[in-house]
Amino acid sequence: MQSRFRSDRRLTVRMGLTLFLLGLLYVGFVAALIVLLKSWVLVAVLIGALFVAQFWFCDRIAMFAMRGRVVERAEYPGLHAVVDRLCAIADLPKPVVAVSEMDMPNAFATGRSADHAVVCVTTGLLRRLEPAELEGVLAHELSHVRHKDVAVITIASFLGVVAGLIVRFAFYSQVFGGGRRDQNTAAVLAAVLGVSAAVYAISFLLIRALSRYRELAADRAAALLTGRPSALAAALTKVSGEIARIPTKDLRTAQAFNAFYFTPATGREPGIERFFATHPSLEERLAQLGRISAELGEAAAPGGTTPGTGTSGKAG
């Protein structure tokens, strides 16, 4: 069967450009560490170990942090049925299906490749969405797998993770051990801290810009795959509204994984901080879906969904 997922050249170009720029930054970062620490072995072992751990175990780390668990068809037949249908029309290998016992309505996809992917939804999402809306959300997450941007974001974020860890290590080393070292050692640590902070800031901005675009690309792909952009728009509106009602203190744990979520766990629309956001604004996403709906000649049914959803029964 030919896939109904359309390739997105603009996303591919952006991913390639981001990886290229981060690669240059990575080379400079490693070179600076080797010069400052005077040990290429230490740098190679540290960075190599962290890269393998993040890339190889990214799905397990995300699942553990978000309390996700793999669910079988017998437990969630409706959820599996929707994933099966979408994978069939998208010509995708079926990912591992997981559920997170969280009231916050959201979903995410992770994994290093299409053959090692996980799609996870929260119980809060399953309770709140209609079948057509759930299908739109799952199509959005599967498009991340299809476009391979999940793996790209994982790789791209690696440099920022390393730089962030070094900044923390150097900072606490300076604070708690400053009196037990000579001036040369302190100068080296300060230099490492400065270089790492600069690298973290640059990689942060590059990754956030890519993250915002990939969300728009996933919305486009999902709308075209299902043929029901209004159902995805309804899901976006509903999920964003529900998250806005959740106390900020209850969202803080989830915010570390915003880049992977269907909708960020911020509880508010970004203002000036939109330049640092992981997702475009709700208005921008809805406007794009509205244009696609007009192009497809979709007739919206009452309540923002479309007739003939193609799915029936509860998701779980």
TrEMBL record:
<dbReference type="InterPro" id="IPR022919">
    <property type="entry name" value="Pept_M48_protease_HtpX"/>
</dbReference>
<feature type="active site">
    <location>
        <position position="141"/>
    </location>
</feature>
<feature type="transmembrane region" description="Helical">
    <location>
        <begin position="150"/>
        <end position="171"/>
    </location>
</feature>
<dbReference type="InterPro" id="IPR050083">
    <property type="entry name" value="HtpX_protease"/>
</dbReference>
<feature type="transmembrane region" description="Helical">
    <location>
        <begin position="186"/>
        <end position="207"/>
    </location>
</feature>
<keyword id="KW-0472">Membrane</keyword>
<keyword id="KW-1133">Transmembrane helix</keyword>
<comment type="similarity">
    <text>Belongs to the peptidase M48B family.</text>
</comment>
<protein>
    <recommendedName>
        <fullName>Protease HtpX homolog</fullName>
        <ecNumber>3.4.24.-</ecNumber>
    </recommendedName>
</protein>
<feature type="region of interest" description="Disordered">
    <location>
        <begin position="297"/>
        <end position="316"/>
    </location>
</feature>
<keyword id="KW-0862">Zinc</keyword>
<keyword id="KW-1003">Cell membrane</keyword>
<feature type="transmembrane region" description="Helical">
    <location>
        <begin position="12"/>
        <end position="34"/>
    </location>
</feature>
<feature type="binding site">
    <location>
        <position position="144"/>
    </location>
    <ligand>
        <name>Zn(2+)</name>
    </ligand>
</feature>
<dbReference type="Pfam" id="PF01435">
    <property type="entry name" value="Peptidase_M48"/>
</dbReference>
<feature type="compositionally biased region" description="Gly residues">
    <location>
        <begin position="305"/>
        <end position="316"/>
    </location>
</feature>
<keyword id="KW-0645">Protease</keyword>
<feature type="binding site">
    <location>
        <position position="215"/>
    </location>
    <ligand>
        <name>Zn(2+)</name>
    </ligand>
</feature>
<keyword id="KW-0482">Metalloprotease</keyword>
<feature type="domain" description="Peptidase M48">
    <location>
        <begin position="78"/>
        <end position="290"/>
    </location>
</feature>
<keyword id="KW-0479">Metal-binding</keyword>
<dbReference type="GO" id="GO:0008237">
    <property type="term" value="F:metallopeptidase activity"/>
</dbReference>
<dbReference type="InterPro" id="IPR001915">
    <property type="entry name" value="Peptidase_M48"/>
</dbReference>
<feature type="binding site">
    <location>
        <position position="140"/>
    </location>
    <ligand>
        <name>Zn(2+)</name>
    </ligand>
</feature>
<feature type="transmembrane region" description="Helical">
    <location>
        <begin position="40"/>
        <end position="58"/>
    </location>
</feature>
<keyword id="KW-0812">Transmembrane</keyword>
<keyword id="KW-0378">Hydrolase</keyword>
